[in-house]
Known about the structure:
Elements: E1 2-4, H1 9-17, E2 23-28, H2 33-48, E3 53-58, H3 63-73, E4 81-86, E5 89-95, H4 101-112
Parallel strand pairs: 1-3, 2-3
Antiparallel strand pairs: 2-4, 4-5
Amino acid sequence: MIHDYKSKADYDTLIEQSQTNLVFLMKHSSICPISSMANKEFLSFIEDKPTTLGWQVLVREDRPLSLDIAERSGIKHQSPQIIVFQKGKPVWDCSHGQITQINLSNTLKQLMA
């Protein structure tokens, strides 16, 4: 399931969810072809893993939120970008061509081990 990240309060919700689940956050640019390809990979990954929590923020439309995520998480802003949260903290991130179903699935397996 994908949640739309629309307010600063969503960060607190995401962090709360990560206490008991892995949470994948996608930072997506709606005008970038590389980001569009990465987003398709992300959406397919989440669709294939119905118990995995996913969030998505549109970096161009919601730039202040995207920058707030970078500041609060301590992860330098990139787009496209995936940040994985576990137990209230970012534990893994990747960007651009690293965002593939296979890479996300392998990360899920490693973090669940």
